[in-house]
Design goal:
Blueprint: H1 2-9, H2 30-33, E1 48-54, E2 57-63, E3 82-89, E4 97-105, E5 112-117, E6 125-132, E7 135-136, E8 140-143, E9 155-160, H3 171-178, E10 183-186, H4 217-228, H5 231-237, E11 242-244, H6 266-283, E12 301-305, E13 309-313, H7 345-357, E14 362-366, H8 393-405, E15 411-415, E16 421-427, E17 436-442, E18 469-473, E19 477-483, E20 487-495, E21 505-514, E22 521-525
Parallel strand pairs: 9-10, 10-11, 13-14, 14-15, 15-17
Antiparallel strand pairs: 1-2, 2-5, 3-4, 3-6, 6-7, 6-8, 9-19, 12-13, 16-17, 16-18, 19-20, 20-21, 21-22
The structure holds fe (ii) ion.
Fe (ii) ion binds near residues 189, 249, 417, 419 and 445.
Length: about 525
Amino acid sequence: MRTSRRILLKGGVLTGAATLAPGSLTPVDLRSTAAATPFRDTPFSLGVASGDPLPDGFVIWTRLAVQPLADDGLGGVSPHSREIRWQVARDERFRYVEASGRAWTGPAEGHSVHVEVHGLRPGREYFYRFRTDREVSPVGRTRTAPDPASYPSSLAMSFASCAQLEHGWFTAYRRMAEDEPELVLHLGDYLYEYSPGTVPADSGNVRAHEGPETASLADYRRRHAQYKTDPDLQLLHATAPWVVVFDDHEVCDNWADEVPRTAASVPYFRDRRAAALRAYYENMPLRRSAIPRGLEMVAHRRLAWGRLATFHMLDTRQHRDDQSCGDGMGSCGAEQDAARSILGESQESWLAEGFAASTATWDFLGQQVPFARMDTSPTPDERLSMDSWDGYPACRDRVVRAWQDAGVRNPVVLTGDVHDHLASEVLSDWEDPSSVLAPELVCTSITSGGDGHDSDDGRYRWAEQNPHIRFWTDLRGYVRTRVTPDSVTADFRCLTGVSRPDQPAFTRASYVIADGDHALHQVSATPLSSL
Ligand SMILES: [Fe+2]
């Protein structure tokens, strides 16, 4: 573990490519040969990634690009099919190779490679790399999920969302990697569609998007490539397997099924959505089951960590009814319609079946938008976001009833979207803070919104109307959890800033959820002003 960390973190960036003799895949010391090929020449400039671990394997990913920002989105790679060789080993020097093979890619795939590796042992750490011609990729570290019948004593899982490249440095991804999580969840807004400088952060934009607002396949491919060149993002991808779900900005702001937020024509939006989802698949460590077919991509899925935890990963964009009441911050009564759904009928059934079948101690809902009520009106009237579950209250009730009917032991909702850390509780009666059904952990953004600010008491600005929101801060960061049979500990990790590079992270507050309890209990708090 220590050696691998040295390799992965050496010099603050991933180790570069090494050179092998053609036709050989003999073990090499990637450190000693790293200087042989300048980084700018490697086709592995976008790094490597892995994801969706199963007990016998995972997906490993890379995408070839020598000029990541090329206008056509194809990374300056010649338009031929290429053979990519891959290896998975027990050690970072590839002395003990456990699986290897060949894959083909070309311009139709955006020069991306997704290999679903099988036949490995459960609950183990592995290392992987790719090679094409004489070029060898950086080494990634990943792991298989535990045996389904086993009961792991702990899981280190961190989750994040909302990384607007212009708004700050992705240092939070680096701090996440330094924690060495076993699993990373990304809950959406992995990238943003905006043209350069359209959305300024209060602390100033530190860099600019390349190209226009994303609309075509070439635009989305290039935008993904720009994000993937970030060394902090590459580092976290190469450190642990990710489980990713998209939210709105991977396509465009607040889209709902086939309806964009703004008045762009629907036929145009259908093309845009298809292009965005195709580029998303190409650039993420996803299984073949997620290959988009036209407009549709199967994004919801379930993963198990032995009998300790089940992750129900939801898709709240592709199947939702259009936001009601003009898609703003005001409810108008129309959102109460019992027929409305944020998941769609078939995903609701799939989720209920998953609750019924689960025997896990912890059932996590990995999803995009706030689940518990958030009333942001200072007056007795309500101000609710029609884009979050507050815009689909009947659907929220059905999900709660489904986990209650199934006797789910410990439901825990994980959320992104709002660019604030929130420790919140789902209540059966929003007027009665003792009626707790489940905790909701909301992670702040990686950068979106810029440096942000803190309050010494960690009190939500509208705490009076929302007594179930126990903690809030508007700093940037991520949530780090430790899951055990007895409890989930959630550390709300924050950065002192993102407008300057390489800032430190600290634990702004820690909460514990005890098995069978559902409520959140604060165990520590450290305001920014006390550092
Ligand atoms: Fe966001």
